[in-house]
Design brief:
By secondary structure, the protein is an alpha+beta fold. Helix content is about 15%, strand content about 35%. The protein has one domain: Immunoglobulin-like, CATH 2.60.40.
Length: about 160
Amino acid sequence: MKTRMLMSMMVIALVAALVGGATFAVFTDSSSNTANTFSAGTVELTIGTETTDAVALDNMAPGDVISGSFAVENTGSLELYYVVSANASGDLFGLDADAAVVTITEGGSGVLDSDETAVVSYTVELPLAAGDNYQGVSGDLQFDVEAVQTANHDYVDYLN
């Protein structure tokens, strides 16, 4: 009798397990969204060809003012803020207080959208007061353009 009872309990447990297992059966599925590509933008500058007045750069006389310009283009994908600085070296720009002076007259800084261009204009002046010690001297002038993205920070303080 004990065996029968034990056998009956086992059959009941087996039936309960089958019914319970069938009750918990569900359909499942999963999927992935794989079209999430992220990329960083770019800050890139291109400097265009420089143009100057007809006065020869290698034959300045006291009182001459030479005007020039060049283009700055944002070839990157992000809006940028740029600042132009003139770096002059050599005796023409540094013998004494009467040395040649470089002045950026237009476009020395600004904001450019992608594919936008700005013109930077400048003058180089050899003052009338430049004495004989300036005869035959020369100097080099280089314009540096720095740029930084405008998004998400105080860009003016970053470059100034």
